[in-house]
Amino acid sequence: MFYLIAGLVIFLGLHSVRIFANDRRSALIAQFGDKTWKLAYTAVSLIGFGLILWGFHLARMEPQVLWPRIPGMNHAAGALMLLAFILLVAAYVPGNFFKARFGHPMVLSVKLWALAHLLANNTLADLLLFGGFLLWAVVDFISLRRRDRAAAVQPRPGTMTGTLLTIIIGAVAFAVFAFWGHALLFGIQPI
Prior knowledge:
Elements: H1 2-14, H2 17-20, H3 22-32, H4 34-61, H5 73-90, H6 97-102, H7 105-120, H8 124-150, H9 160-186
Helix pairs in contact: 1-4, 1-8, 3-4, 4-8, 5-7, 5-9, 7-8
């Protein structure tokens, strides 16, 4: 569990700098430059992410079950994951309803991903991993919305084309990942 927790602290801690220490972040960027900051940020993020993957893999070898599986939660998780994929795509497709309405669809995608996996899984490692990401996403979304209000950000309105494209790409990406990718990467067939 040590590697999983260490990875979560590093990865989510680094991704929380803008939430809790934005002035310090700005000072470091001013001192070392934007490229150096991004390089260091990427390197430390990859280390944290690697520790998360390794720690979760080790924890799955000897799972500590916390509660019995609840019937039907895999189906609920699948529905949430479809929405999570659509929101993830919405972060990149210009002019879609989801980005216009929510402002930060990627963070909402992380929330749904984490919640879906908490519903479908029942071990201590799952609780740490997905619960940690869910907590981070909730706090980050609040912080981002607050920052948007302070800066009087006005989102670009969504178009029908952008929204349909987002839904189609998200649904196709979900299907590919659910039916093939998840099993290939993680050894678990969710659907």
